[in-house]
Amino acid sequence: MTGLELHIFIALDDVRGDLVDVYAAVRSELLHLPNYAVKAFGERLDRHGVEPGFVAVVAYVGGVAVRYADANTIERGGRRRKGLRALRVMGIRRSERASNPPLPLS
């Protein structure tokens, strides 16, 4: 891909339409299934978009969104943490993670 641009969003309202469009394009063959329907995805996205730490990284080519990744902060005792068994970053010890915090978004 040439002309690839990555944009970071911390507010769902600023990017929701692009995320839904990319999802629908990538999952087009599965959209007839209830869990993959655009409406179901939009509902999940709306829940994630108001949770703490929401961030989306969207790849654009020629001004058109082509791929994305989104994430949230997982808080102790929160809805998403309850489903986690373990989180491990391969090849990086806990002490190394603590001394290399993530870069700020701005």
Description of the molecule:
This protein is α+β, with helices and mostly antiparallel strands. It has a domain at 4-74. The protein is built from 3 helices and 3 strands; from the N terminus they run βααββα. The chain has helices at 16-26, 38-49, 94-99; strands at residues 4-9, 55-61, 64-71. A 3-stranded antiparallel beta sheet has the order 1-2-3. α1 packs antiparallel against α2. The two termini are 26 Å apart. The relative contact order is 0.18. Residues 83-100 and 102-106 have low confidence and may be disordered.
Question: Which key features would you list for this structure?
Answer:
3-stranded antiparallel sheet; 106 residues; 3 strands; 3 helices; disordered C terminus; alpha+beta
Runs with pLDDT <50, length 5+? Answer: 83-100, 102-106
Shape: flat
Q: What is Rg? A: 16 Å
Strand content: 15-25%
Query: What percent of the residues sit in helical stretches (DSSP H or I)?
Result: 25-40%
Strand arrangement, largest sheet? 1-2-3
Structural class given helices, strands, pairing? Answer: alpha+beta
- Count all strands and give the number: 3
Topology as a string of helices (H) and strands (E) = EHHEEH
Largest sheet: 3 strands, antiparallel
* Mean pLDDT metric: 79
Total helices: the number is 3
